[in-house]
Amino acid sequence: VFALRDGRIAYVDFGSVAEISQTNKEAILDAVVEAMDQNFVQMAKYMSKLGFIAEGSDVRPIANAIEAMWEDAVGRDMQDFNFRTVTTQFSQLAYRYPIRVPERFALVIRTLLTQEGICLSLDPDFKLLAVAYPYVAQRLLRDPLYCDRLRQVLLKPVPEVRKPVFDFRRLFSLIFVAAAVAGSGPRALLEIGRTFADGVALCWRRPSLALELAQGVVRWARAKALFASNLAVGGLGRLWRFASGGGNAKAKT
């Protein structure tokens, strides 16, 4: 038991201990990002990589089931996210699909369920994401092991250009999650402000990362311009063919 500087009391329980490799940690982050982007097929592939889905299984029906589960658990209000509800629904999928929970993750899940249950008994208004998101954001923006993952989070490949472009939809998803779990009031604004400040500090520390993200924005604008240009040229071509065909038909008449 620890007495924190701000007057709170913290406890550490070493009853359930498991070690997760750095590769698995990064795969978990990738799966969460894909879930936020609502790319559940890719999320299921990462879950297969983590050992939750039997190797060689068709992930598409599993992805559809996970999407329905995710929308039911999170779609109403991000603040109402309940870890026990998600794990209960996920365990039901194991009866219909080749899903299993690896032992190392079973310990982690059991620990999270216990922690959430204790916190809810102490504070019925406890929100797991409201506590976890600031920590995750800090690790992503401050920890050297995860900072480079922002390239994967905020850049995505598109067919119009050779290099990946900035993904504004994923950025807005992150902002939406941050705003949803922060709630309202001065404390919420403070948390969002800290996250923004950490992002600015990261760009200052990693100018190459900032430059790559800026180049991604430029490529995004170029890709949109090319798409609009191709769309306009295609429309004009169809209009010309239609007009030419109509003129020939009129001449024959």
Mean pLDDT: 78
Percent of residues in helices: over 70%
Q: Determine the N-to-C terminus distance.
A: 94 Å
Q: How is the quaternary structure best described?
A: single chain
Strand segment count: 4
The number of distinct helices, counting runs of at least 4 residues, comes to: 11
* Strand arrangement in the largest pleated sheet: 1-2
Q: What is the beta-strand fraction?
A: under 5%
- Form type: globular
Parts with pLDDT < 50 across at least 5 consecutive residues: 249-253
Supply Rg: 24 Å
Order of helices and strands: EEHHHHHHHHEEHHH
By secondary-structure content and strand pairing, the structural class works out as mainly alpha
For the sheet with most strands, the description reads: 2 strands, antiparallel
Describe it for me?
- The chain contains 11 helices and 4 strands.
- The protein has a two-stranded antiparallel ribbon. Strands 3-4 form a two-stranded antiparallel ribbon.
- A hairpin with a 5-residue loop joins β1 and β2.
- α6 runs parallel beside α10.
- The C terminus is likely disordered.
